[in-house]
Write a structure and sequence with these properties.
By secondary structure, this protein is of the alpha/beta class. It contains 12 helices and 9 strands. The protein folds into 2 domains: 162 residues, Rossmann fold; 152 residues, Rossmann fold (3-Layer(aba) Sandwich), CATH 3.40.50. Helix 2 crosses helix 12. Bound molecules: phosphoric acid mono(formamide)ester. Phosphoric acid mono(formamide)ester (CP) binds next to helix 3.
Length: 320
């Protein structure tokens, strides 16, 4: 059985998924189309559902995760792979072992791919230069979270269609957000108009140089938006507070039904999770029909199946 079809061999040449910045718009659309066909075929007997049979995928999660880790596990199993998850606290990293030694040992144990979440920006790139197997970035510090952006963009396209000239606002803690960076790269590559919004301490003007509009006024950010992606405050990466209090943040930047009612009638609400209800989003909005938050989570399975299939069966993967 061929693990890979002709189009995949022609268009997808990447062995690892390290960032969205490093992908072309053609590659992004190829992953999304692959995810769509996987979602629509719902596990029937197509050969792709066995494409990773006999492969061993190790999830190395050095930071907490619910959605990403579980979705990667389900995705791997859905393609016939064996999957093992290791968390930071339960690994020998706590005994002084380096990430490099951990990865080399995981490879020696027969890993065919490593899915890595780590607090250090660039750690997936670092590992990709050390081990032979594909490295999938599941979030590296405030740098990138490519699989999250791909599932966000998948959901946006499912709801809005072609994203060219669509107005997408990302509101919240942009400075410390890997989700914001990956989405910014991906959305701009697909022709969307991106606004980054939040307190001036968390949304530096420098982002304008990348092609985004920056505003610190939520009413400007939300007025014409087709979709708004809310981000939580990432306290785990902040050394000091960047605004007076959570209550004041919620008062100025939180999305409640009054703010929602001033937005376009069909505008949709996204959030990568975890939610901090009552801070960046009120429960009445999070649980409303306008929010597509749980659809994002569910789409994460098909998107991660596409990522694992394309990277692990790539001609450049020594284990294909
Ligand atoms: N969105 C996201 O990365 O969630 P987890 O931290 O639960 O994986």
């Amino acid at each position: 059985m061929e693990a890979r079809n002709f189009l995949e061999s022609m268009i997808w040449q990447q062995k690892s998924l390290l960032s969205i910045e490093g992908l072309s718009s053609e590659e992004i659309l190829f992953i999304l189309d692959k995810a769509k066909s996987l979602k629509e075929s719902k596990g029937n007997e197509e050969p792709i559902f066995h494409s990773l049979r006999g492969k061993r995928i190790i999830n190395l999660f050095m930071e907490p995760s619910t959605r990403t880790r579980v979705a990667f596990e389900i995705a791997a199993k859905s393609l016939g792979a064996d999957t093992i998850s290791i968390s930071g606290e339960a690994s020998s990293l706590t005994k002084g072992e380096t990430l490099k030694d951990t990865a080399m040992n995981v490879q020696a144990l027969g890993a065919d791919a490593i899915v890595l979440r780590h607090s250090s920006p660039g750690s997936p790139l670092f590992l990709s230069r050390i081990v032979d197997v594909p490295i999938i970035n599941a979030g590296d510090g405030a740098h990138e979270h490519p699989s999250q952006a791909l599932l966000d963009i998948y959901t946006l396209r499912e709801k809005l269609g072609d994203l060219r000239d669509r107005k997408i606002t990302i509101l919240g803690d942009i400075l410390f957000s890997r989700v914001a960076r990956s989405n910014l790269w991906g959305l701009l590559k697909l022709g969307a108009k991106v606004t980054l919004a939040g307190p001036s301490t968390l949304v530096p003007r420098e982002f304008e140089k990348l092609g985004a509009r920056v505003t610190h006024d939520p009413s400007v950010a939300l007025k014409d938006a087709d979709a708004v992606m809310l981000l939580r405050i990432q306290h785990e990466r902040q050394q000091a507070s960047h605004f007076p209090s959570l209550a004041e943040y919620a008062n100025v930047f939180g999305l409640d039904s009054k703010v929602l009612s001033a937005m376009k009638r069909n505008a949709i609400i996204l959030h990568p999770g975890p939610l901090n209800r009552g801070v960046e989003i009120e429960s009445e909005v999070a649980d409303s029909g306008r929010a597509v938050i749980l659809q994002q989570v569910a789409n994460g399975i098909a998107v991660r199946m596409a990522i694992l299939h394309l990277c692990i069966t790539s001609e450049k993967s020594s284990h294909s």
